[in-house]
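User: Earlier you gave me the apo prediction for this protein. Now I'd like the version with zinc ion bound, so I can compare the two side by side. Same sequence as before, with the ligand SMILES added.
Assistant: Got it. Here's the input I'm using:
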Amino acid sequence: MSVLHDAALAAAGRGWPVFVLGRTKRPVANCADCPTTEQDPGHNREACPCLTCHGFYAATTDPDRIRAMLTAVPRGLLAIRTGAVAGLMVVDIDPDHGGAIDRDLMAPTYTVATGSGGWHLYYAHPGGSVLSRRMPGRHGIDIKADGGYVVAPPSLHPRTKRPYRTVGGRPVVEMRRALAAVVCAPPAVSPTPRVTATRPTTPGPDGRRGRISSPTALLAAHLNAVTTAAPGARRATLYGAARGVARMVAADAIDPTDAVAALTGAGRAAQQNDRDIRAAIVGGFRDEGVPT
Ligand SMILES: [Zn+2]
Ligand SMILES: [Zn+2]
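And here is the structure of the complex with zinc ion:
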């Protein structure tokens, strides 16, 4: 425990909120008193006083809570919450799925060698909203930012039993502009959406059919509505956005896979769980007659 404890305090000392995962890299189950989001969407996970409930929402920099957490889950894995709250975004490179460090894009920075042979490159969060999602246009690279977390050293990878470890001794640096452009880019949309005879669009809220003049702006508006919705309106807003984005899919303005990924990322950034997100997207697409 002392090695993990020292590492947890060191991370917290950098301002990175830490929490504890179960031995399988999954969050610890909620206590009996804490409802799931399905049971009570109004339960404030961010403000919940429980020590280990609600996954990364339990993350803290408070030394007393950290000690109590490690005592409560003595064989857990240490994790760091990423995103604006931590001032961190992490590029997660998985060579087993084709990921590789791109030195033109990725400046040398604080680096963790993962227990599965990959790399975590830690960068300063640029501010604003950075979605946790696959890096656009890359295989085997994920962005861990708002609504995300990473397993931290010296945790042992549950499958390989090898430790996560820092390498290189570098400080956390800011992203190069080229990487920031990729990481902060809105999800990809077709620059020239077409409306074909075989795939007619359904009418929008204003009853019009046909060409979407600015798909990038329209998609950004839908996603922004999701990420800025009031807590009590998050699920309804995501459903509404899913219907809007489904109409864009029907107009060939966005690839359906990218559409679902974009909505999922926005839902996560708005602190919704994956089950609610999936239900809202499937429902929204179904109600627009668009397959998911
Ligand atoms: Zn709770
Ligand atoms: Zn609880």
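For your comparison, keep in mind: Confidence is low (pLDDT under 50) at residues 192-209.
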